[in-house]
Amino acid sequence: MPYGLTAEILARSQFAFTVSFHIIFPAFSIGLASFLAVLNAQWLRTGDETYRLLFDYWKKIFAVAFGMGVVSGIVMSYQFGTNWSVFSDKTGPVLGPLMAYEILSAFFLEAGFLGIMLFGREKVGNGLHMFATAVVAVGTLMSATWILSVNSWMHTPAGYSINEVGQFVPEDWWAIVFNPSFPYRLVHMTLAAYLTTAFVVAGVAGWHFLRGTAGAPTRRMFSMALWMAVIVTPMQIVAGDFHGLNTLEHQPAKIMAMEGHYDSHPEGAPLILFGIPNSEEKRIDYAVQIPKLSSLILKHDLNAPLDGLDTIPEADQPPVAIVFWSFRVMIAIGFAMLGIGLWGLVQRVRGKLFHDRWLHRAAFVMGPMGFVAVLAGWITTEVGRQPFTVYGMLRTSDSLAPIAAPAVAASLIAFIVVYFFVFGAGTYYILRMMAKVPGTVRLGLNDGPIRTAGTTPVQQTPNRTNPAE
Amino acid sequence: MEIDYAFIWAGIIAFAVLTYVVLDGFDLGVGILFPSGRSESDRDLMMNSIAPIWDGNETWLVLGGGGLFAVFPLAYAVIMPALYMPITLMLLALVFRGVAFEYRWRTQRWKRVWDMAFFGGSTLAAFMQGIALGALVQGIEVENRAYAGGWWDWFTPFSVLTGIAVVVGYALLGATWLNMKLEGEVQAHMRRYARVLAIATLALIGVVSLLTPFLDIVYFQRWFALPGLAFSLVMPLLLALTTWKLFTGLRDHHDITPFLSALSLFGISFVGIGVSFYPHIVPPELTIWQAAAPESSLKFALVGAVILVPLILAYTAYSYWVFRGKIDPDAGYH
User: Fold this and answer.
1) Once rounded to an integer, what is the mean pLDDT over residues B17-41?
2) Chain A residues whose beta carbon lies within 8 Å of the beta carbon of residue B85
3) For residue A286, is it left (φ>0), alpha (ψ between -120 and 50) or beta?
4) CATH 1.20.1630: does it fit domain B12-293?
5) What is the value of ipTM here, to two decimals?
6) Which of A171, A304, A405, B100 is the most buried (most CB within 10 A)?
7) Which of A226, A197, A234 is closest to A209 using CA atoms?
8) Which of A456, A439, A419 is nearest to A21 (CA)?
9) Contacts of residue A80 in chain B, CB cutoff 8 Å?
């Protein structure tokens, strides 16, 4: 293969590409499933039709996003084997059962009750429908719990021994599941999913405010979303800080790359705000930095010594530039979210939440930023784990399946073409639904009673009971 | 007595794969038959008959893959690279047909495109699953805990034949499912399809069964030694009974019998494959014990399976119960 495109680079690109596409959908559907459960519960409790309109609106959007999550997820469950077979053979005894638990306790739960949540209200009644909706929300959270345990184990392996054929063998399941980075990663990702969804909701509301099409449902969802923003963003910043301290303890090289610390700082390390990592010269060019602040953040002491990448063997260092940048993107978005949350709070107190056009513009622009932050965060943690798949234990280059580069190149191209086509179309349909206001009868084009030339499409009229039984 | 966890797990994985085959089999079958819907509304009905349940069905495929990774990691690590192309194509095909369920209701201009995606994706996924089965029956070369064959080893006349057999068989499942779920003209239409597809499926089962012993003499021996022998004696009887039920059910316009008979046909064939394979999981190299994860993994995962699989079956059955009966043309799901 030309341009140094080895089978390893291609396989890594394919995994990075497919998992990045995939994570977008769960990040959205975890938050949205909980949002839907709250909306439905509020409707049942108060009888306020605004909640019901919002539920029906976001339900349609959820269905499309969830479908994309399912199909892109099936791909992931096979890709460990097709492209990372040595990794699978070695880690299967430890990670496989956790994934089996995810499938058994979460995937089936979601799939089993999703049909009832989406299509079954008239068939099972409001009580069971509420139950199904709540179960779907719980299922998304269970799924996140197991898969984050798996992922965290790859960062901070624990509770295992190694057998004669080189497999990781479970010794202590408690230690495996609750490995050192798992609680931090779970909280950080769950909050990220909630924030991402909150900002999508706020962004859609912002759009309708700007267009002058906002009614009661738009105001309601904008208000709910900005409550989430102002409450959850500070929690997320604190959780992120704890996660960072945990990483410093277990994966110091990742923190060095994030901070851009090529050199050790025995008397307090500076916080580099911006700069350009220069991997040749092993320094940050044009660095804008605040002296000793990094030591204060990471060690809570201005003069605490911090090691740099010069203490890590070259072969064990993660790529600095990617990690350095993706980390800063995530942080910047996090603080922008905090800003919107506080701004919203101030305007709410002043009674101007629904009238501040600049706030609506800002919310609209911030709508997709949660996804960017989630991707940037995952890039930071995953690239920061390199050159290992199981940190310190199994190298990425030793994890690869024996697949020749041309075969991987062909599949990579196929995935790129298909994903952009399929998920591009799905995103377009979602955006088109979002462009309509809640309460639109024909939100998904074909869900209202229409009779186009010569065809009699199957329709569902709202609130209609089904005489089929 | 020592409990043989690997054996128990081989049974559970086999059960998951069979459940996948029959459940997603009929909904992929609906996709394969999709172009035979004579009008827009026929196709709407066909798709709506599976809209609430398809992703539950597909979850069994995830369990098949994920379960293999968990309890037979070596088999997973060998089979996936060996079947790199068919698996990748199957996954891409499933992407297309899976999104079609939502997308085709979201657009007028592109509805045709997603109809095609639904048909093409379903057919390609079924074909690749058949190819994967054929390739596995032919045997996979293993050296040093890794696949040692070439990139096109899976592509042979035999695997193409099994690919076609699976497409036809799934279409039969789909036709009998639609016979059960629909009414009137469409139903009669599907019943006619089911008859033709049943004949074709039986013929293909016959040809594949006759060819299998020629691939490896071991398969032949297993059928004529205990415990396989017991099955070889019962199988023709079961097959005859199922076939009779299927055809009389279609003749007498029964709603449910043909579908159950088609499911049994798959069940019997599946057990037949099991007889040929046992005790291998990756013929001809790896037995279930060689491929199994350490006992601590098998035990830990078994606790979950014993508790959760019956629960899953219960609520899956409930979900089918909620959406039971004929599809009402005036009250679709979208």
Assistant:
1) 90
2) 407, 411
3) left
4) yes
5) 0.86
6) B100
7) A226
8) A419
9) 69, 76, 80
